[in-house]
Amino acid sequence: MNKEIAKAGTFMKLNLEAFIWIAVLVYFAVSPVLATDHFTLCPLSNAGFEYCPGCGLGRSIVLLIHGHVSESLNMHPLAIFAVIILSTRIVGVFRNYFRFQKQVSTLNNTEYQ
Hints:
By secondary structure, the chain is mainly alpha-helical.
């Protein structure tokens, strides 16, 4: 049992980036669609600038995930690309992990023969 827990912990550590992006997408999926007041970490917005090229991307992704495509594109046109990039990165991290595990397994099998 402890060996399985250690194996799961290693899997989590080696794929931490993918799990972080999955958590972000899940957070966006459970976020309210029309939040009137929001917290921002944007230094340009906090400094008082009216326009920032990245501002609104998170809210736009929330709208997109909830199916409000036209409102999402009006808020920030790059939301679709951001979701595609995040999804591609998640798949890529897991694919690289499993390819590496397969290579290690193949090397271990050839060493003992």
